[in-house]
Amino acid sequence: MKKRIAGILTAALIGTTVMGTVVMAAPSGAIDVISREDGSGTRGAFVELFGIEEEKDGEKVDMTTQEASITNNTDVMLTTVAGDENSIGYVSLGSLNDTVKAVKIDGAEATAANVADDTYKVARPFNIVTGDKLSDAAQDFINYIMSSDGQDIIEKEGYIKVDEKAEAYKAGDAKGKVVVMGSSSVGPVMEKLAEAYQKTNKNITVEVQVSDSTTGINSATEGVCDIGMASRELKDEETKKGVKATEIAKDGIAVIVNNDNDLEELSSDQVKSIFTGDITDWEDVTK
User: Fold this and answer.
1) Residue 38 — φ and ψ, nearest 5°?
2) Where in the numbering of this chain does the PBP domain appear (predicted)?
């Protein structure tokens, strides 16, 4: 049974005072695994990149431990790990803040620069998803995202731009409203793009609705929105329904722990073992 996200107050570290300074010992006790909900693009990319899935009867099966607590968006993940000293989770690198700590993976620090040069390999695309019938307004917004103006915003927000040689945006004569739906990881940078775009082109309004990648893809497929947001690659069965993905940025996935946890690094194999439930105690990680 999945544990509820609610006031986990168990101390995970032992503090020792030495000449007035508190020295924190290594984490101890049961590991509180925090994962994302089914349909999350971040979860899909995370389990794929760390091999937390097995093929059964021709299908890939997510093997995340049933003991994991489930959070339904990026903000809840950050808040949960920040409030639980025994926890470990994962979050979009661009959404990382100082309320939690990102650990190194296989010796590489989770930074945009390391994602860009492939030193940090836990990375995935940020995609927009569109169908065959795209309005002029939606196309104009996409033109902005892929322009040097939009790509500079993406870089400023801590993600990796996909086009270093993009040209400046030139507004067209389209008017109307654009609805964008999907991934809570893509959502923050999409909101920044929409805000800047609407200052440049006042004839078009952009509404960003955050949910998860699967909802964004399905909404674009069904025509519920103009543009879907997905923080993973599209599956074959999704593209067969007539939608396509366009990569607008590249993002890393940071493995995060509580700030009071003095752990600095994990191997990919350790992360896999923790999230599949093969390792359940911090002593087995740090010994």
Assistant:
1) -60, 140
2) 27-148, 173-284
**Ranges of each domain in the chain:** 15-123+252-286, 124-251
Q: Minimum mean pLDDT among 14-18, 81-85, 248-252, 261-265: which range?
A: 14-18
Residue 26: band (very low, low, confident or very high) from pLDDT cuts 50, 70, 90? low
Residues 6+ apart with CB under 8 A from 36: 42, 43, 46, 70, 71, 72, 77, 90
Could you read off the pLDDT of 76-125 as tens digits, one per residue?
999 999 999 999 999 999 899 999 999 999 999 999 999 999 999 999 99
Taking domain 124-251, whether its CATH number is 3.40.190 is answered by yes
CA dihedral 79, 83, 87, 93 (to 10 degrees): 30
Domains 15-123+252-286 and 124-251 share a fold: yes
Spell out a b/e string for 52-88, using b for 16 or more CB atoms within 10 Å of the CB, else e.
bbeeeeeeeebbbbeebbbbbbbebbbebbbbbbbbb
- pLDDT score recorded for residue 60: 86
> What CA–CA distance (Å, rounded) separates 259 from 131?
43
d(CA 225, CA 179): 5
Task: Domain 15-123+252-286: give its CATH superfamily.
Answer: Periplasmic binding protein-like II (3.40.190.10)
